[in-house]
Amino acid sequence: xxxxxxxxxxxxxSLGIVxxxxxxxxxxxxxxxxxxxxxxxIAALVGAMFWNAINENVYHVExxxxxxxxxxxxxxxxxxxxxxxxxxYPVSNVTAVVRMTNARSGTxxxxxxxxxxxxxAELFEGDxxxxxxxxxxxxxxxxxxxxxxxxxxxxxxxxxxPHFGKASYAIEAKVN
Length: 176
Known about the structure:
Elements: H1 6-28, H2 32-58, E1 61-71, E2 76-85, E3 91-102, H3 107-111, H4 119-123, E4 135-146, E5 151-159, E6 167-175
Antiparallel strand pairs: 1-2, 2-5, 3-4, 3-6
């Protein structure tokens, strides 16, 4: 978890005040348990919503200088790059979400457009041993602690599916 910011403390303080006021209101009413449960549930839901909104808007990281190498002997791909903290607050646990897709080229792509399984078919692949997944999504931890303005190089080694003709990939940084 990344360090807390003043926005997190402001949210915790305001939710605490609302919860205490709701508890006082519940103690003065006839239906104590109902009001107490409602106030607690509302504070928890609002807190979870705003906590995620604060995390998305406060912690900013970007990935650049991507390079890849494919190792044919071991059927793996090595992706190198640089992750940089562009926000004002330190971040912890930067995760890269790698989405690799089988990118067909030329006439093969047009001929096999309907023959290749899509995202809907991947949901219902079942126990079919002949099924070949066309999309791979993996998450990798690329930085433990990153202070504002600092950058760090990373390397991701992942399996390259042997049935992929040519892979295209997209990498997105996510702060946990």
